[in-house]
Structure formats: structure tokens, C-alpha cells
Design a protein that fits this description.
This protein is mostly beta strands. Helix content is about 10%, strand content about 45%. The longest helix is centred in the N-terminal third of the chain and has 17 residues.
């Protein structure tokens, strides 16, 4: 039995040793994704590190096939979000979507998705979406606020929906924001509730 257990554990130890260091640092939960964010035909890598209850840090490695266990990330964005990251996804044209939530399905919850693109050598926020389901106890019962907004900074257009109504265009034009400058305070007022 003991010998069988040793043989069963060996592949896990090999896999653990091959795991990149940012994923293991501080035992932080992490997401990792391979994609071609700079659209040069070479595999890139995005890693999110987040300690329980802490902010999420994003690391992007261009040309992830380059050797080197101590290789520095090509782009680092500390404190990308204060909310809990729940997903990383590769989208059209090499874009990266980082989804986070506050409350995560509780009676007061929001979910945000930040779409990151690489254009002309810069990492930009190309899109932002947010939806909310906020229940508040009042003297007459529970008041529920529902809504969502979706901003495409690349096309300059956005929509917003409150309660159960259909989405309506948001007035104004939106321009891509450098990822290094992004903060939740930069989201359009229409995305607040």
C-alpha cells in the first residue's frame, strides 16, 4: 500500500515542481491562462495572484515559451481589483477578460468583467461590464435593485439596464484607458446603482 501511494504521489510532485513560482508565492489562490494577447503568433501567459481578502495582482508574460524560472513579468498591475477574482478567459483577438465578484451570489452582490487588450505596444482596458443584484431590508420588506452595464472602450459605445428593462445606450463616447491607470473610480457613472 505504501509503495502504491508513493507511485501515485510522484506525478503530483513533478507537476508541482513544474508550476511557475508566481502561482505558488504566499500560497495565494491564482488563475493562469495561456493566450496570444499581443497577437504575434506566440503563446503569452496571464497570471492573477490574490491572497484571501486581499487585492488581486495581474502578471502578463509575453512570449511565455522563453525559458527562465525567475523570469520577470513583462507587465504587472498590482491591485487590479479589491473584489475576488473568479475567472480568467481569453476572448476574441487575443483579449483577456478578468471577472471578479463582491458578495458572489449573496443578497448583496456585484460582478465585474474587465477586458484587457494589447494595442500598439500598450495594455489597455478595452471593455468593462458590471451587473448587480442588491437586496436591502427596509421597513416595508426587501427592496431589490437589479442592473447591468456594458462599455466597449474600443468602439466608444455602452449600454445600461436598470431593474428588468431592456438595455439603453449610454450617452457619450468612451476611449480605451491604459491598464496601468485603471481603477474602479474610472467606471462610468451609469455603471453605479
Amino acid at each position: 500500500m505504501r509503495k502504491a501511494l508513493h507511485h501515485a504521489i510522484w506525478p503530483w510532485l513533478v507537476a508541482l515542481a513544474a508550476t511557475p513560482m508566481p502561482v505558488l508565492a504566499k500560497n495565494a489562490p491564482a488563475f493562469e491562462l495561456k493566450l496570444d494577447i499581443d497577437r504575434d503568433g506566440k503563446s503569452d501567459r496571464a497570471v492573477v495572484q490574490q491572497e484571501a481578502g486581499g487585492p488581486a495582482d495581474l502578471y502578463i508574460y509575453l512570449d511565455a515559451e522563453k525559458p527562465g524560472p525567475s523570469r520577470q513579468a513583462d507587465f504587472v498591475r498590482k491591485g487590479l481589483t479589491e473584489d475576488r477574482v473568479i475567472d480568467l478567459e481569453s476572448k476574441d483577438k487575443g483579449s483577456l477578460s478578468v471577472t471578479s465578484c463582491f458578495g458572489c451570489g449573496a443578497s448583496k452582490s456585484t460582478e465585474e468583467t474587465l477586458t484587457i487588450v494589447h494595442r500598439q505596444g500598450k495594455f489597455l482596458v478595452g471593455g468593462y461590464s458590471r451587473n448587480w443584484d442588491w437586496n436591502q431590508q427596509t421597513s416595508s420588506g426587501v427592496e431589490t435593485t437589479l442592473g447591468d452595464c456594458d462599455i466597449n472602450y474600443l468602439t466608444g459605445k455602452g449600454t445600461v439596464s436598470k431593474d428588468l428593462e431592456a438595455g439603453k445606450p449610454i450617452k457619450g463616447k468612451f476611449k480605451p484607458v491604459p491598464l496601468k491607470d485603471w481603477s474602479s473610480e474610472m467606471r462610468p457613472k451609469a455603471c453605479d446603482f
